[in-house]
Specification:
The complex is a heterodimer.
Chain A (H helix, E strand, L loop, with lengths): L1 H35 L11 E8 L6 H20 L7 E8 L4 H13 L6 E3 L3 H14 L3 E3 L12 E3 L4 H14 L4 E7 L2 H16 L3 E8 L7 H10 L3 E5 L4 H11 L9 E3 L4 H7 L1 H4 L3 E4 L8 H14 L7 H20 L4 H8 L3 E4 L2 E5 L6 E2 L3 E5 L5 E6 L21
Parallel strand pairs in A: 1-2, 1-3, 3-4, 4-5, 6-7, 6-8, 8-9, 9-10
Antiparallel strand pairs in A: 10-14, 11-12, 12-13, 14-15
Helix pairs in contact in A: 1-3, 2-12, 3-4, 5-6, 12-13
Chain B lengths: L1 H30 L7 H18 L3 H26 L8 H23 L10 H4 L1 E3 L5 E3 H23 L1 H11 L1 H6 L4 H23 L9 H16 L4 H21 L2 H18 L14
Helix pairs in contact in B: 1-6, 1-9, 1-10, 1-11, 2-3, 2-4, 2-9, 2-10, 3-9, 6-7, 6-9, 7-9, 10-11, 11-12
InterPro entries (chain A): ABC_urea-bd_UrtA, Leu_Ile_Val-bd, Peripla_BP_I
Protein name (chain A): Urea ABC transporter substrate-binding protein
Keywords (chain A): Signal
């Protein structure tokens, strides 16, 4: 009994000590950052230039974010093999955001002030991006963000290489409209991205004579969809617009099929299901359904053939490539082009050089828009095949200029 | 009318899922009083059993049928191991059991992640169970849900027969109602405990097989389930099978009816409020077991 209690006390003391030490370390990091003052100090002394890779390598987001880190590393490797940037090899420093937003902020601070990196690549969820945004703005350092998101943001220190709403959701709706679908049902997870996206969809629908027959949100991780599917079915919409995230998609599509609903009768357009997710939901349930992205593994072109081949050679034949992975791969090449045009690693000079830079990406030619710091992208609607791959059924024909605040769309004027 | 009927069936099918996941727990928690937080991971083990078997057996229908007994044994064996290694040393300390089994659940989750990978795995459902049964033009019920309902009712019937008519059932009930007297009468209570735990955990395995038809199969699937399972058992009344059955269906129908007219989140809130109110009125749950034990 006594020895037990003794052990417990020792454990508590150890835990407390650990907390104190950790707090002290945290404080030190912040101090040195403040002392560093304005402008990110970049270490250009050595023969290599450091960049940060900030992805969740553990926790619930690891499944998705590890694939992004893999393609970032592939790009770095390719660039180094071709001679590096401004004569320097790229030295990637990887940090684990651990699917925890404060950790993302802490690690980005570490990369900027201790490693003195030239730029950071990574983040996936909007929550993690919002958490690191003030850190990059305060330190005047650069972040390249590779995932489609809900728009309505434009930080001077972030380059967005994933789609904003007018490059993914709006074209998705245009496609439905062109197919003669005059009514939709909205199903999404209950958090910021689906709610913002659905606000935009409702504004679009009103202006384009489309009816929104219902709108339902399920908590993240929810796996009971029988009632929602009943509601969808009773509403009799022409199509479903799906902004569910993660595991919920599995339960939703199993229920959807079980209720006798089909891709032919009432297609579902999803914006968060890429090749990797198709694998875990099951093609049995998904075959024939639609997705809206800017890139698929099957996208045609020499640049993509090279990318897919290189990725599979490095990570395995069974590993698919997806839209966020491609956007991450592209982001490293765009940074390289910006640095070379600026002739310097200096953040302000790189930013000034960014506008108009183009790159022959796997998804097709992309151009950096200097004002919004987003990139122009071609929108693509794809159909999920029996083999789990997604094939394009429609594309926007040309790269769409990014418009994160939807200023060019009169119907969106009421959104904020 | 059709709508009400179709929602009613949805409610009953939600109830059947609740019943399946809570049934094993009504034995281990309800009858034995063990708070086993790893129960959800036994369900996960049952689901992964289907996945593993489908690597060997190609026919989706056969693999599912074979998976039912195999999952029962796999999850049951895990339960016995847990009982033998940890829980039997902690019978007098329920709160420690809670923490220890929670730790075990985390270990099992990580184990699943290491063995099967962090992403969800997919299983194939037999074609028969991915479609639906058309009753009228508007009343269509999904065949996987019917299968789960039948499975749940069969499990309840089997468990009732075991508890009421077999010598094992008599022993289990004797130990639950008065452990000391049962021991004095010559029952090996430790062995009865282990067998009870085997059956309870095995039922979790069967629930896992059923869940592959409707939800994701991944390392964290157990955590999403375990709270609902405890809820059903507590509201039903500790130690009462009939309470578990009734409460599972009532909660299922309530959830689906409220959800249809509101949203998922509002429905969950209303169901929880109803539960809290009910437990204020009847803290002991729907049914109570009258025993002579002092506990």
């Amino acid at each position: 009994m006594f020895s037990n209690r003794g052990r417990r006390t020792a454990a508590i003391v150890a835990a407390l000590t650990a907390t104190v030490v950790l707090t002290a370390c945290g404080a030190k990091t912040t101090d040195s950052a403040t002392a560093g003052g304005a402008g990110a100090a970049i270490d250009t002394s050595g023969s290599a230039i450091k960049v940060g890779l900030l992805n969740s390598l553990s926790g619930t987001m690891a499944i998705s974010e590890v694939t992004v880190k893999n393609s970032l590393l592939l790009a770095v490797e390719e660039i180094n093999a071709a001679g590096g940037v401004l004569g320097k090899k790229i030295e990637p420093i990887s940090e684990d955001g651990a699917s925890d937003w404060p950790t993302f902020a802490e690690k980005s601070q570490k990369l900027i002030s201790e490693d003195k990196v030239a730029a950071v690549f990574g983040c996936w969820t909007s929550a993690s991006r919002k958490a690191v945004l003030p850190v990059f703005e305060k330190n005047k350092s650069l972040l390249f963000y590779p995932v489609q998101y809900e728009g309505l943001e434009q930080s001077p220190y972030i380059f967005y290489t994933g789609a904003t709403t007018n490059q993914q959701i709006v074209p998705g709706l245009d496609y439905l409209k062109a197919q003669g679908k005059t009514s939709v049902y909205l199903v999404g997870s209950d958090y910021v991205f689906p709610r913002t996206a659905n606000k935009i969809i409702k504004a679009y629908a009103e202006a384009n004579g489309m009816k929104v027959l219902g709108e339902d949100y399920a908590p993240l991780g929810s796996t009971e969809f029988s009632t929602i599917v009943n509601k969808v079915k009773a509403a009799g919409a022409a199509a479903v617009f799906n902004t569910l995230n993660g595991d919920s998609n599995v339960a939703f599509f199993k229920e959807y099929k079980a209720a006798g609903l089909t891709a032919g009768g009432m297609p579902v357009v999803s914006v968060s299901i890429a090749e990797e997710e198709v694998k875990s939901i099951g093609t049995q349930y998904l075959a024939g359904q639609l997705t809206a992205w800017n890139y698929y593994q099957t996208t045609e072109g020499a640049a993509n053939e090279k990318f897919v081949k290189a990725y599979k050679a490095k990570y395995g034949e069974d590993k698919p490539t997806s839209d966020p992975m491609e956007a991450a791969y592209v982001s490293v090449y765009l940074w390289k082009a910006m640095v070379e045009k600026a002739g310097s690693f200096d953040v302000e000079k790189v930013k000034a050089a960014a506008g108009g830079i183009t790159f022959d990406a796997p998804e097709g030619k992309v151009t950096v828009d200097g004002t919004t710091q987003h990139i122009s992208k071609t929108a693509r609607i794809g159909r999920i095949g029996d083999d789990g791959l997604i094939t394009e059924v429609w594309n926007s024909g040309q790269a769409i200029t990014p418009d994160p605040y939807l200023k060019g769309y009169p119907w969106a004027s009421g959104l904020s | 009318m059709t709508l009400v009927l179709s929602q009613l069936f949805t409610g009953i099918s939600i109830g059947a899922v609740l019943l399946l996941i809570a049934l094993g727990l009504s034995l281990t928690f309800g009858q034995m009083g063990v708070i086993n937080m790893a129960h959800g991971e036994f369900i996960m083990a049952g689901a992964y059993t289907v996945y593993v078997l489908q690597q060997v057996i190609t026919g989706a229908g056969w693999s599912l049928l074979v998976a039912l007994p195999v999952a029962f044994v796999v999850a049951g064996a895990m339960g016995v191991l847990l009982e033998f290694l940890l829980i039997r040393r902690l019978y007098a300390r329920p709160l420690d059991t809670l923490l220890v089994t929670w730790g075990v659940s985390l270990i099992l989750q990580q184990l699943a992640r290491d063995v099967f990978g962090a992403p969800n795995v997919q299983t194939r459902a037999p074609e028969l169970l991915t479609g639906s049964i058309r009753i009228t033009d508007h009343l269509v019920i999904s065949s996987s849900r019917v299968f789960i309902l039948v499975l749940a009712l069969t499990a309840v019937a089997a468990l009732t027969i075991v508890l009421k008519t077999t010598p094992l059932g008599r022993r289990i009930r004797a130990v639950v109602q008065n452990r000391d007297l049962a021991a004095v009468s010559g029952l090996a209570t430790a062995r009865v405990d282990r067998l009870t735990f085997f059956i309870g955990s095995g039922l979790a395995g069967i629930a896992g097989v059923a869940l592959t038809l409707i939800g994701p199969i991944g390392p964290t699937m157990g955590t999403n389930i375990i709270v609902n399972a405890f809820l059903v058992v507590v509201v039903g009344g500790i130690g009462q099978l009939q309470g578990t059955v009734i409460v599972a269906f009532v909660l299922g129908v309530l959830q689906s009816m409220v959800e249809y007219t509101t949203t998922v989140s509002v429905a969950s809130v209303i169901v929880f409020i109803a539960i809290v109110a009910f437990l204020q009125w009847r803290p002991q749950g729907l049914f109570t077991l009258r025993t002579r034990s002092l506990a």
